[in-house]
Amino acid sequence: MTNWRARVKLTHLFTEDEDFEAVQKSMNEIADVIEASHYFNKFDTTIFRNIPDGDSFFGPVDYANKLINWLYDYADEHKIWIE
């Protein structure tokens, strides 16, 4: 069993909406929390604040999901529980 160093509340900021504005707003709010937490001091949130509009094959939700996966990987490596 993993001994988590910290817990950070983020999942309440996730959106189920798929339009660009809603996804970007959600990612900005997530970036705000990450930047305020010293547990993520080496995590770059720049791309969270600049989600691409996407196209007919890869939309803003797809970009956001990739970034969230990257965030979870970082958290796992640093023993940070995201709730």
What does this protein structure show overall?
With 83 residues, the protein is mainly α. It has one domain (6-82). It is 42% helix and 7% strand. It contains two helices and two strands, in the order E-H-H-E. The chain has a two-stranded parallel sheet with strand order 1-2. The longest helix is centred in the C-terminal third of the chain and has 18 residues, at 60-77. The radius of gyration is 13 Å and the shape is elongated.
Quick structural gist:
The protein is mainly α. The chain contains 2 helices and 2 strands.
The overall number of domains is 1
- Globular, elongated, flat, extended or rod-shaped: what is the shape? elongated
Structural class, please?
Answer: mainly alpha
Q: Give the proportion of residues in helices.
A: 40-55%
Arithmetic mean pLDDT? 94
Main pleated-sheet profile: 2 strands, parallel
| Strand ordering within the main sheet | 1-2
| Beta-strand share of residues | 5-15%
Query: For the terminal residues, how far apart are their CA atoms?
Result: 17 Å
Total strands: 2
Reading the helices and strands in chain order gives EHHE
Number of helices: 2
Low-confidence stretches: none
Radius of gyration: 13 Å
